[in-house]
Amino acid sequence: MVYSSANDYRTMAELCEQALVFFGQKPFESHLPQQAFYYQLVVSCVQLRDFGRGQAIIRQHHAVYEDGSFNWFKIQELYFLLALHTQHYDDAFDTCEKIIQHPRLEQQPAQIVEMWKIYEAYTHLLVRARRVDRLPSKKFKPARFLNEIPVFSKDKRGMNIPILVAQLLFDILDKKFDICIERVEALEKYASRYVKKDENFRSNCFLKMLLQIPEAGFHRQAVARKTERLLAQLREVPVEIANQPHEIEIIPYEDLWEMIFQSLPERRFG
Description:
By secondary structure, this protein is mainly α. 64% of the residues lie in helices and 0% in strands. It has helices at residues 2-5, 9-24, 31-48, 51-60, 70-85, 89-100, 110-128, 150-153, 160-173, 177-194, 201-215, 220-236, 253-263. α2 runs antiparallel to α3, α9 runs antiparallel to α10 and α11 (201-215) runs antiparallel to α12.
């Protein structure tokens, strides 16, 4: 926890490995502590964007986790995030489809079910942005999205950030610019009230960038000019050193911004 809070994920990984050697040498099964340390080891892989290592850890030690258990769903979350953070979008899509269809998902606590609803939304954003070579098993309806995640929708300083981002991005990708303009005022109030610069620096930058899109009439070149400084600030504080929970930034903001930016029209709207 000390090294995690200091964003020292390399040392955190080393300590996890030492703990796993310790418990692996026991003359009895130690699955519970092993689950905890494998989980934190993969968290470090997510933050360090080490897809190969994280993938190998999960595949080699999957037997430690009971299929369909709480901890199994949590380690699948990490694999999903790891794939997104390293642009293995097809892997992320396949993982989400597997989990959404799992018969034991609905038996999990609300925060697990809702988290995967949010992840499902982001996989469909990838489909809209043509970043995956897959067809979803079911149609996703952005208008019903908020109704399916009542707990996290009230989490003003946490998971509400990726929820609000997803809503706006669906509207932009679907060219619903009138609705985007309506959302902006509420998003601006939310950002000023709940997204603090010091606590959520990257989210603060990204939300400000999104607010510039309607201001620039959704015109690609105008958006580029208006967001140049904010994008530079975002890049100065990469996700691996940002002081924020790893769940908040589902797709790294730089990658998400590139997807949205490329979808903007060459002509000004309105």
